[in-house]
Specification:
The structure is a homodimer. By secondary structure, chain A is α+β, with helices and mostly antiparallel strands. Chain A is about 45% helix and about 15% strand. In chain A, β6 (about 175) and β7 form a beta hairpin. The interface of A and B includes residues 296 and 366 of A.
Chain lengths: ~375, ~375
């Protein structure tokens, strides 16, 4: 397993400005406040489903020589071009600069591993950005769908529909006894990983998170940082996903994660209510200070940003700060290192990045409606 | 020398609400943004001159029995009633509640020592509040004048004019060789203490303050906390005053303090310019965060308040925060413990005080024009 990238890494760039492949640019930018309000978004930031698939009669990606690897890329690109419905955009990762690849990681469109070694690897993005496919990552195909809020069923349906379209044109490696065959046995069977990105500030604050995560592991669930395996958890955001892919039908995997998530959501919400009831001023103080600092800082690093954004997100969800919740989730991504680099159009050193980050945050938060002040 | 009161003390009150003597109320409140802009107010908050005087043929205050002490009070009250010009208001300290006395300390109208033991002590305040007289403090009379900014000459003239009016009706203890006789020999001669309340955040930040104050001591100057001898220095505010009262004419004492102050002001201003030139972002960051926290905190203690107000005052003076400078100086006083108690009209515990303090700060800072944001 390759060592995962850390959370705030910017790839070293050569002297020349590398060009962004035509058609990719729009997937690197972020619409202003794009995020629709999904169900349960006070706790669940997003739902993700990914399916691992491999082509029959081909070696797994890590065994392919250059020619065969390129053949897989070509085959997938051709098939995607033939699909009905929303058009697909196909990119060879080698033609994407390290900086742009890192942005794709920060947008959760590819894994850190995929960005790190781009040789003979591909990325397909559906026009609406809801579904994307990594080609020649650990498996030939990793079809993934991300939707805001608690939308596991919808995300599974989207991924499955793409999977069905592809299966009509490709022969998958499939075994009658085991199911879909995958490069790593942990994905064997359904090839399905369903995960939820959850914001759990009060479970962390009240020291309940540790016990919860311990229990989750016993239930066959994994808890990870927001960029997947081996990444840090920051800003109280956790990715919770199934570990078991074999011997359980897809619907049960989804249902299992949903019912576990429901319990976590309940505890987080109850914790918030209790906090509001028993320590409203302390909570308002914490949230208010975070908001005030973000609106006024001139130099701010990534860790402090995420810590404060976590507080502000909590404040918004609890009605203590009157701002667009989308702005926090957008800032979460925009203020990541590679996105910052991209926005400025040149290489920034860490200090310059901290200054630029603060400017972006100030700009976006002051464009927001002012916090309504109560009791004065 | 009695032990000085600490900086954020609230006197314990009895169960009943004590009444404020008629006529005193207006001296306990603060006008909104009352402070005129004096010269040099970027560094000098206020100038103060006080004259120590004693009545001839009477024992010093600390030797007086009850009857004689009351006689002094009566004599001074009578004489003040006969003076031409702005009317005087005379109060017996014993009739003022501990809380109100503490507010008078926070407003610099009386010393902590005067508030602590009110027996047979008096306070006279001239209608315009510019001149006040403590009666039976260490000396029979302590005439003091406080003016905003660098106004030592004006403050001396005001105090001297009151002194002249009194001397026409009272016989002072005076010695041809020594000058005015005082209870403590450190005041002998002129009985004059001139002091400046200076805000020196950059001298502190750059670790120059210590050396400066060491040099000042050698020049016969004292550096103290803002409530005088034995009080803490907080929020980078220092009271700098002459130690020598004997053998030097009044004009020279004033001139001496002025020329020393000019050097301190120069260094503080140069430090600010350098900081702005070489670390503008760091300075804006510091000031911005302080302003953001003060505008948004829900619970804030006295020390943090003064530390942040110091940063905001610096920011206002350097044009980095666009707010009325008067509001900071006013908050400085309003958020002191006794003023807070008074505003709320009841006994507050320390937690309630921190909540109340935060509410007052938010209210006053959000009534201010918003900070102008540059470079965006």
């Amino acid at each position: 397993m390759p060592r995962a990238a850390n959370n705030d890494q910017v790839p070293a760039e050569g002297g020349k400005e590398e060009e962004t492949p035509s058609g990719l640019e729009k997937f690197l930018t972020l619409d202003r406040f794009p995020r629709a309000r999904g169900e349960g978004m006070d706790v669940v930031i997003s739902s993700r489903v990914r399916l691992a698939r491999n082509l029959d009669e081909r070696l797994f990606s890590n065994r392919l020589n250059a020619e065969l690897a390129e053949a897989v890329l070509g085959q997938v690109e051709t098939v995607l071009g033939q699909l009905e419905g929303a058009p697909w955009h196909f990119f060879h990762l080698e033609k994407i600069s390290p900086l742009d690849r890192q942005i794709l990681v920060e947008k959760h469109l590819i894994s850190p591993q995929h960005a790190q070694d781009p040789t003979h690897r591909g990325l397909a993005i559906r026009e609406d950005q809801v579904v994307s496919i990594m080609v020649n990552e650990e498996d030939h195909l990793r079809i993934q769908c991300i939707l805001p809020g608690m939308s596991l069923d919808e995300a599974y349906l989207e991924a499955e529909s793409v999977d069905d379209l592809l299966e009509a044109k490709l022969v998958y490696a499939f075994d009658g006894a085991y199911g879909y065959l995958t490069a790593c046995p942990t994905n064997l069977g359904t090839g399905l990983r369903a995960s939820l990105m959850m914001h759990l500030p009060v479970l962390v604050l009240t020291n309940q998170a540790g016990n919860f995560f311990h229990a989750l592991a016993k239930l066959g669930m994994a808890v990870r940082g927001q960029y997947g395996e081996g990444t840090q958890t920051i800003g109280n955001v956790f990715q919770i996903s199934n570990q078991i892919t074999l011997g359980v039908p897809e619907s049960e995997i989804i249902q299992n994660l949903k019912s576990i998530a429901a319990q976590i959501i309940d505890h987080e919400r109850n914790g918030r209510e209790t906090f509001l009831r028993e320590g409203r001023e302390a909570l308002e103080d914490r949230v208010g200070r975070a908001y005030g600092i973000l609106q006024n800082a001139r130099i701010i690093n990534s860790d402090e940003t995420l810590r404060l954004l976590s507080d502000v997100r909590l404040g918004i969800e609890m009605g203590l700060v009157h701002a667009n919740p989308g702005v926090v989730d957008e800032l979460w991504m925009l203020t990541r290192a590679a996105c910052l680099q991209k926005m400025d159009g040149r290489g920034l050193n860490p200090y310059e990045r901290d200054v630029r980050r603060a400017a972006i945050i100030r700009g976006m938060l002051t464009a927001q409606p002012q916090e309504k002040r109560e009791g004065e």
